[in-house]
Specification:
Blueprint lengths: L1 H16 L6 H7 L2 H18 L2 H18 L13 E10 L7 H11 L3 E5 L3 H6 L9 E5 L7 E5 L3 E7 L7 E8 L2 E8 L7 H19 L5 E6 L7 H10 L2 E2 L22 E5 L4 E7 L10 E8 L3
Helix pairs in contact: 1-2, 1-3, 1-4, 3-4, 7-8
Length: 306
């Protein structure tokens, strides 16, 4: 009986995640697809061992339904062709309450990425970023007293950078970044966390606004930040479908970034999304720098401007 109940529970949680557009609590279950897959495999193994065939059928269904959306992250992905300018980008939620700014500053100085997107930038963090002025002469820093301060640091020129608030949500930064003969639209974002019905709808509305913004862009595009969304939730799937962006993690495994303070559950909510004409060379999760998020490190090749 225990195996039957476990298999039914895993199957129900799996199916709930596909109904996220109708209720925010159902959508929350989609974030844990990796864990539902492991649980389903365990239930399937136990059901076969005990010859509980009905439970085994339910567990097998859960395995298949979870495996299909996860599998692309482990399979080789198609890549853009052609040359252009290399670009390394880091996205990191620094955690507004994290007072150990020296650790993050040392990490960013050591990495020396071309572009850095930082989230939860408080006034304390904004002051600490002054130490990187020489490395990042081009910047937009929008500190706030809540958890929605944001910053974009760049070694390369930013054209007409602006701070926007899509869907009346938290601020985002939009700019055109130029390196050598290449240019891209760069969007740095931090939508709200889906901790309630209102905030979940707020997040999805902002993700939808980003999708529409990118859909009409006339140049290669990068969207980076803490999106408070895993690749399997409704808002993220709609963003990708609308914008045409692809997750830089596809083909490189499940690269979970939150919560860095504990190993389980840890889910991928920090992202670097790129348009199909941008070649992804590598995409990794960086080391612990004291935040509850781990940094995302991506190296790409921007196509030459036409």
């Amino acid at each position: 009986m225990g195996i039957d109940l476990a298999a039914a529970a895993v199957a129900a949680a799996t199916l709930a995640g596909f109904a996220g557009r109708w209720h925010w609590l159902l959508d929350l279950t989609s974030h844990f697809r990796w864990y539902w897959l492991l649980a389903a495999v365990g239930c399937l193994t136990a059901a076969v061992w005990k010859r509980r065939w009905a439970a085994g059928a339910g567990a097998l269904l859960a395995v298949a339904l979870n495996l299909v959306p996860i599998l692309p992250y482990w399979l080789p992905s198609d890549q853009a062709d052609g040359g252009g300018a290399p670009l390394e980008i880091i996205s990191l939620n620094v955690l507004a309450d994290n007072t150990n700014t020296d650790r993050t500053i040392a990490y960013l100085r050591h990495r020396g990425a071309d572009v850095v997107v930082l989230l939860e930038v408080s006034r304390t963090w904004a002051d600490a970023l002054d130490e990187l002025d020489a490395l990042y002469p081009h910047r937009v820093v929008e500190p706030r007293d809540d958890k929605f301060g944001i910053a974009l640091l760049s070694q390369w020129p930013l054209e007409e950078p602006r701070v926007i608030t899509p869907a009346d949500g938290p601020p985002a930064i939009v700019t055109v970044l130029r390196r050598e003969a290449s240019a891209c639209l760069l969007v740095a974002a931090h939508p709200p966390a889906p901790v309630s019905a209102d905030w979940s709808a707020w997040r999805d509305a902002q993700l939808a606004a980003f999708g529409q913004l990118v859909a009409v862009a006339d140049r290669p595009t990068i969207l980076a930040g803490d999106l408070n969304a895993t690749p399997w939730c409704f808002g993220f799937r709609r963003l990708v479908a609308t914008s045409g962006l692809r997750d830089s993690a596809v083909g490189r495994g499940i690269q979970a970034t939150w919560n860095a303070h504990r190993p389980v559950p840890r889910i991928p909510i920090d992202h670097v999304l790129v348009s199909p004409d941008i070649l992804v060379l590598s995409r990794e999760v960086g080391r612990d720098v004291g935040s509850d998020h781990l940094p995302v490190e991506a190296r790409v090749i921007l196509p030459e401007s036409r």
